[in-house]
Design a protein that fits this description.
Blueprint: H1 3-21, E1 23-35, E2 38-49, H2 52-68
Helix pairs in contact: 1-2
């Protein structure tokens, strides 16, 4: 399997996952206060929404790469 086909499969999988879940979240640590040896950190939960057009676009581009990846011009 060449690189273009592999990228195509990864894009299709990412597009399907993006359409199924719609968003993903992660937690990041933010330093709120540092006063000498005392340090206060805050954990913030961030959510990122994946637009439908991005999921569909990834599936379409992945399909094109999968179909055209093996052809030599």
């Amino acid at each position: 399997m060449n690189t273009a086909k592999l990228v195509g499969v990864i894009l299709i999988a990412a597009g399907v996952i993006g359409l199924v879940y719609g968003s993903f979240s992660y937690t990041k640590d933010t330093q709120a206060l540092k006063l000498g040896p005392v340090e206060v950190t805050v954990k913030e939960k961030e959510t990122i929404n994946v637009p439908v057009w991005a999921g569909v676009g990834a599936i379409v581009v992945g399909g094109v790469l999968l179909l055209m990846g093996g052809r030599k011009g």
